[in-house]
Amino acid sequence: MKSIPRSGWISHGISLSDVESVAEHSFSTSALSLLIADLELSRGAKVDVERVLRMALFHDMAESLTFDISKAYLGYLGRRGDSIKRELETSAWRHLAEGLKDRALASKYSRLQTEFDENEALEAKIVHAADGLDILLQVIEYRRKGYPGLLLAELWDGTNAKITQTKLLSVKQIHRQILAESKRIGT
After folding, report:
1. Whole-angstrom Cα distance, residue 116 to residue 89?
2. Whether pTM exceeds 0.85
3. What's domain 7-185's superfamily in CATH?
């Protein structure tokens, strides 16, 4: 994961030398997930922080086998693109789990991945929100490096729209801070 670039950035015109790795993204998503989980706990929500962290750390683990397949590339396949990506990543996850040789652990990790994919549980919602927030933060980072806003506008707008739909107060709070920072630098 350390050597696998996030291909979505490449399809948005970011130089390969500047593109973050899947490992960098996974770490940042995990840190944001922990922060959100702790903020939600402080508000009285019942959050299983261990499940949040496990999900966040492993949410893109399949990409260690499939690489990061950009949604922009899959768009050429129409509606089939998303289902092909899901099928590839589900198969890669199954392969990773089977490689553990510990059925109980493999089952535990597979359930977590399914839970993440379904995005129904609070823990999955936290990780999905953190994933989106990390994308917004990365856009800001690329803008600071001098990349034009037009290259990243579509990704910014789409991610922003998804984050805006959250009901998690802590995510709304962090999102407002990110938006304020983006205005400060002109995103």
Report:
1. 12
2. yes
3. Hypothetical protein af1432 (1.10.3210.10)
Rounded CA-CA distance 71/122 in Å is 25
Name which residue leads in pLDDT, 59 or 48. Answer: 48
Q: How far apart are CA 23 and CA 44, in angstroms?
A: 31
Q: Rounded CA gap, 114 and 144, in Å?
A: 36
Strand partners, 21: 5
- Token pair, residue 183, equals 């205005």
**Amino acid type, 91:** S
Q: With a cut of 70, say whether residue 74 has pLDDT above it.
A: yes
Alpha carbons 165 and 129: distance in angstroms, whole number: 10
How far apart (Å, rounded) are the C-alpha atoms in residues 123 and 120? Answer: 8
- Exposure class string for 30-54: b at 16+ Cβ within 10 A, else e: bebbbebbebbeeeeeebeeebbbb
